[in-house]
Amino acid sequence: QITTLINHKDKPKRSDKTLQAIQRVGQAVNLAVGRFVTVGEAIANENHELKEEMSVACIEARRAGETIAQLTDVASLDHPESDSHITIFTDKTGVVKAARLLLSSVTKVLVLADRIVIKQIITSRNKVLATMEQLEKVSSFQEFVQIFSQFGNEMVEFAHLTGDRQNDLKDEKKKARMAASRAVLEKCTMMLLTASKTCLRHPDCESARINKDGVFHRMRLALEQVIEIVTDSRPNGENEIAPISIYSGIKEFKNKVEGLRENLYFLSKENLSTMLEVILEHTEDFTDSAYTSHEHREHILELSKQAKMELEQLVSVWMQAQNQKTKDLMEDLEVAILKTCQCMNELKREVHSAATSLATDLLKYHMDHMVLKALKITGVEGNLEAVAEYTCKLSEQKEQLVEMCRLLRHVSGTEPLEITCIHAEDTFQVTGPQIISAAETLALHPSSKIAKENLEVFCEAWESQLSDMSMLLREINDVFEGRRGEKRVYLSLPRPGKHNANLKALKPVKLDTEEQAKIAKLGLELHLLTSDVDSETEKWEDQENEIVQHGQGMSSMAYSMYLFTRGEGLLKTTQDLFHQAEIFATEGTKLASSLHAFSDQVHDDDKPLLLLEAEKLISLCKQLQITAKASVQGKSATFTKVDACILKTRNVMTLLCQLLPLCCKLLRKATGNGYLKPAPPWREDRLRTATNAHAPERRAETFGIKSLENHVTNVTFLESK
């Protein structure tokens, strides 16, 4: 709204409509500032240490909002009595000053509010730590039950605060780290209960003490990590060293190589060689692993050697092109770039295959939990020798699973999935020894019910992590295949020749490297449009809305088409692309039908605009469908058809980028439709978000608050016994 005011054109002739529009914008800004400041003042009254700073910022914001409203009060300009009235037309610098003051004061209010939230989380964490210290030192069961009841309530409060914070985080990497830390705290709360009870029941048992100490240590680390994420800092000022995966290394390397098309001088050949060396060093994690198959090892080594040769050829042509920019040399450079990138794609595909096939085999083999079952049975029997034998087997299983997580991290494809792999590796690394100490305790005290219950809890954590790995593996495969983790049916491709008799005679072909280069720019534009559509659909509260679902489906299909232009993803041949274009056009037609249905819910004034846009969409989709179904022969004609399909898909996506915000705006105007809802006020039941079934990140939000509350209830029951 402010940008609209600042950028308005100073036309000598001003219509009544223009004057009214400017006044409406000014009033809207002032009203929005008023609502915002009211919330800020409420926060200030609840937090005395920041009350003065917050109040000053709120006063500044309110004053700036009122100034903007006065300067935009231009509806009465045509009246003689208003000649001396200062307005946006006579004092544009006044509006600019007021806008700057408003933005700086609003930012200050937001920063202060954020500091308060951070302080609440730190205070809650300190309470939890203090109670944990008491729990560690208790010597009687009755005292433990009373303190654990308090601890449970404090953990529930901490869970709510960190859940809200996790939803507010914009950085996906931080969000994943927060989810991992909170998952540790949830699982460890139950472990802490049974491990402490076992230690109290068997105070002289060394394995029980080791088991309990491990749980406390892990909880402290998780609490510390939450604070690091919230405050964006690390202890002693250390910088976080991010582990580099093969995927991220290859992605960065390819970006640098492809950048040579635009600029031959922006990096050195030594820089590029070093990047490749780092990637190939990481492939040694695969070639040195005892769990990598001989076939995968040989392929990885072969591709590593080929990558070095391709880079040498690229550097040679690149150096020549720097000295002499002839047409032939530039064409040779383009071929060298494409061959280098193609080799890196094949290397990426090979390490992905090695990691995921190992994971699939291991998860299948260990899903029966035979070792855990044997430990429980031999522990109850008090058979120390058998327990020792099975603990060795569990240690072997742990090493296999840890290695699996390390290899999966290299091919996870996104930073959040990388962090999930690291968290899984830590979980197996820590839980394995804890199961062993719990089994040893049970073997030493075979009649102890609490020791048996304790072993069950740790075994359940192991089984739960194995189950999570199956889900993680599916997500990694989705990202690799271009689905970006979305479980959309739209990516299912019809089989070539099934829906169109004309296609049976055509031989499916792939684009060669030269054709990929020609279509790269168009593909990149399509990629950017899919990002825009995704960000628009994320703004809708109701993700089940038909308009949103059609938009998401079209975005996913367009993304697959973009990947095709790079020689990646699910679409392997031109025939696959043409089929995808047909399905994309059909989905667009369905969206147009949904828009027609939605037009009945909007105001009469807005209906013509919406119907006009829907007709444009139908027209574009029909054009795409005709192009995709057209029969062509010959390499040149096929490429022309590919180019036309991508171009027309881009046109549809461009229109979709305009349609989604329009529909969103119309939904806000329409009342009682239930599609969107306003954000809750500062004090209004902030815990409501944790139970909203439609909100994203639902799994991470809940943190197991119910399970924590159940722990507290169980302890109260024990106390009564």
From TrEMBL:
Gene Ontology CC: cytoplasm
Gene Ontology terms for molecular function: actin filament binding
One GO BP: Rho protein signal transduction
Localization (cell): Cytoplasm
Keyword Plastid: no
Keywords on record: Cytoplasm
Superkingdom in the source lineage: Eukaryota
Keyword Protease: no
Family: Belongs to the vinculin/alpha-catenin family.
Name of the protein: Alpha-catulin
Species in which this protein is naturally found: Lophotis ruficrista
This protein's encoding gene: Ctnnal1
